[in-house]
Amino acid sequence: MSSPLILFNKPFRVLSQFSAEGDKETLASYIEAPNFYPAGRLDYDSEGLLLLTNQGAFQHIIASPDFKLPKTYWVQVEGELSDEALTQLRQGVELKDGLTKPAIAERMASPPVWDRVPPVRFRESIPTSWLSLQIREGKNRQVRRMTAAVGFPTLRLIRYAIGPYTIDDTAVGEWQHIAPTDQLINEVNHFEQQRKRKTASSDRRRTDQKRRSDTPRNTVSHGQGVAGRQTRAQPARRTHRK
């Protein structure tokens, strides 16, 4: 049986979907695997690791922040990254949609990665630096907004890892089937068991509601009718003339 997971190293300016959208390049240009779909997204202008699966439970576990699979990014920023900025990233950054959770943020040397096409535009008067940033959330364009909020705009963004999976052995634009880890399988099994319990509980409630709705009203347990109030005809009142 083939693996339910595919690891893809997404190039720059490729949509994380198979369906066409204008003249933008999509996953269909790279992956031929029927019934596999992305587990989560990676922005059009971001590069690196994207996981795909053909099973709904795997897709939910990988994509949902509730299961806290850490995502590690290599980020090239404009300027020399300061200690103050690193501290802010580690403690949480205030964005328009709320405070981010504490991240693991470290300076790093330029990683041995592929040349981007087209290349990053540099300004000769402003240096650049690289940052390794690990987060456990999924806010829209979160990493870019975080670095901008601490004064260092993102120039290039590469997702290096999702949980234990990395792009180490996969060249840009290539994909491969990978085996799910024991931890991921356990998470999926636990999720499936919870979903079955919720479904069974929901079915019981619907059955009980149907039974109640099918039971005739105004009856008691021994089958006798409930005594109703008798309505007596009210005699017509005569109007007395004075």
Automatic annotation (TrEMBL):
Keywords: Isomerase
Keyword Isomerase found: yes
Signal peptide: none
Top-level taxonomic group: Bacteria
Sequence ranges assigned to domain Pseudouridine synthase RsuA/RluA-like in this UniProt record: 5-149
TM regions (residue ranges): none
Basic and acidic residues: compositionally biased ranges: 191-215
Stretches the record annotates as Disordered: 191-242
Name of a matching Pfam family: PseudoU_synth_2
InterPro entries: PsdUridine_s_RsuA/RluB/E/F_cat (IPR042092), PsdUridine_synth_cat_dom_sf (IPR020103), PsdUridine_synth_RsuA/RluA (IPR006145), PsdUridine_synth_RsuA/RluB/E/F (IPR000748), PsdUridine_synth_RsuA/RluB_CS (IPR018496), RsuA_PseudoU_synthase (IPR050343), TruA/RsuA/RluB/E/F_N (IPR020094)
EC numbers: 5.4.99.-
PANTHER family per the UniProt record, alphabetical: PSEUDOURIDINE SYNTHASE FAMILY PROTEIN-RELATED, RNA-BINDING S4 DOMAIN-CONTAINING PROTEIN
NCBIfam families per the UniProt record, alphabetical: pseudouridine synthase (TIGR00093)
Family membership: Belongs to the pseudouridine synthase RsuA family.
Record's protein name: Pseudouridine synthase
